[in-house]
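Q&A FORM
Asked by: J.P.
Topic: structure of FAD binding domain-containing protein

PROVIDED:
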Amino acid sequence: MVWDDATDVLIVGYGAAGVCAALEARAAGADVLAVDRFNGGGATELSGGIVYAGGGTTIQREAGIDDTADAMFTYLAREVGDAVRPETLRSFVDSSPDMIDWLMGHGVPFEASVCPYKTSYPDNRYYLYYSGSECSGEFRALTPPVQRGHRAKGRGASGKMIYQPLARSAARAGVRFRPHTRVVALESDGDGRVIGVRARSMAHAPLLIRKRFAAMASIAAKPGIYYPPLRRVLERRLDALEHRYAREVRIRARHGVILCAGGYIANQDILARHAPGYTGGLALGTTGDDGSAIELAVAAGAVADRMDWRPRSGRTTRPSPARNRIRSVSRGSSPGRSSKVRSRCWTCRSARN
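REPLIED BY: S.T.
REPLY: Here is the structure written out as tokens.
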């Protein structure tokens, strides 16, 4: 097989999950290449920029908020139900303060300005608030409510203040980034082990075409997220440019491919199969949240799990049909054996995976 490029670790999808995976792989000494179908940033860059963290973070302590890991675990165990295993939840809670420090160490700004009341999203005076359901009667009876929503410091929707500092840190660390590159297949060796990808890249298109592609991708993401007809028109034009100008490339991954390309909220067919109750809602994600990474992993021998996961009755947080995962198995093996495809496709609520 002829390869056009090679790296130790290949990241597919370069939003918050992708850039954090890239930073950690680079810190471990790996050569890292990240690719993204569009401009990078994913849904995180468009979001409100909230990182749910507690147990006594640096920001909480600075604000005088008394929180413990046990209190946070007690609340979340009731809130998330069976969405994650107890040991996974415990690990998330116990590492929560370190996660905030890690993000700050890579330039993500937070501030200990406490919003004293419950709100869906605070104004620009406040950057630490009740982002969950801690104040509701059911949960208040379990443990005293505290503010755990760490909003990145920035005016308006501040998701850009999570992704952009992380991306700059990754670039300084030597992570290579190739935008406008759609992965269409995982390449495997004779034993079924994933050794790279096949992709279509706009890297060789004329400069004017690449600029046009980037501009349309940006508009399709936002405001296209709020006006689906505009997004659909731009998606067709993006597909047409890609069909005409993109070239096929093969990228070798010596030590692994990490899939971080989102869920399936933008794919009506998959949504209708697994979460039909949400087909009429606003697709709060990007065009790239079309389930393609999940399908790539399944085609390579992975096993999809919790594709139809729903919030339990009574929850007040927004349903996320994209919250699913890939269990990785070798071709011809049963679930639970050692993996040849190592991939998890979770909606990234905290920035560090």
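FOLLOW-UP: Residues 228-245 form the longest helix (18 residues).
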